[in-house]
Specification:
single chain, 221 residues, alpha+beta, Umud Fragment, subunit A, four-stranded antiparallel β-sheet, 12 strands
Length: 221
């Protein structure tokens, strides 16, 4: 007795189509792994300003570690970090010395826009500075020096004639969950003295080494 239901025709995939699909899958896996590595492990970056001179110079290439996103171990004093640029620069009349934190516009983004901004980092502006003070520490900037909890901070990475001054933040305590960062080239650096302390969730990475130019390959301190 014949089956009344018509049998569905079998679709045979050609070897060429199989190869194309396999290549597409391999490429997608490679892209996903690359993005995960870049976001959670490490990524290259380029120095675009003079705020960290002489430690870093324009157009030098660096490797930035992002493993703290996995381990939860945040940067320490002396580390050179990158972070999302704040949206607002304070004046002496607008800063709250009791809560000197950076302001971000908190622009609402869709899933796709958020992916492009935070993962691919397209249109995102970032700064590179050195961590000077940790959460809960009392910072004073006076007489051209930086004092942490009443003790002068030794900064052997600065040039001998560098003077640290601030017209906005001069005497404050770093809030919990925030870092106070400055550039080594103090007179040519827009940093936490102008826009406040940076929250942990805006830190992007810690500089671990320089790979360009070739004659300066090595760790960065």
């Amino acid at each position: 007795m014949e089956d009344d239901k018509a049998k569905a025709p079998k679709i045979h995939m050609s070897d060429k189509t199989k190869n194309i699909l396999e290549w597409i899958i391999c490429i997608l896996i490679a892209v996903i792994l690359t993005l995960l590595f870049r976001y959670y492990i490490a990524t290259p970056t380029v120095v675009k300003q003079v705020s960290m001179y002489p430690t870093l110079e324009e157009n030098q290439r660096l490797i930035v570690s992002r493993t703290f996103r996995i381990t939860g171990n945040m940067p320490e004093r002396g580390d050179i970090v990158t972070f999302e640029a704040p949206s607002y620069i304070y004046s002496s009349s607008t800063i709250d010395q009791t809560n000197p934190v950076a302001i971000y516009s908190d622009e609402e983004r869709g899933i796709v826009s958020n992916f492009f901004y935070n993962v691919l980092e397209i249109t995102k502006r970032s700064y590179i500075k050195r961590v000077i003070a940790m959460p809960g520490e009392h910072v004073q900037i006076r007489d051209g020096k930086v004092y942490i909890n009443g003790n002068e901070l030794e900064e052997d990475y600065l040039q001998p004639d560098v003077i640290t001054e601030s017209e906005i933040l001069t005497d404050f305590i770093v809030p919990e969950g925030y870092l106070f960062c400055m550039g080594d080239n103090r007179t040519q650096s827009t940093d936490c003295r102008s826009f406040g302390c940076i929250p942990y969730d805006k830190i992007e990475g810690v500089v671990i080494c320089r790979f360009w130019p070739l004659n300066k390959i090595g760790t960065v301190k």
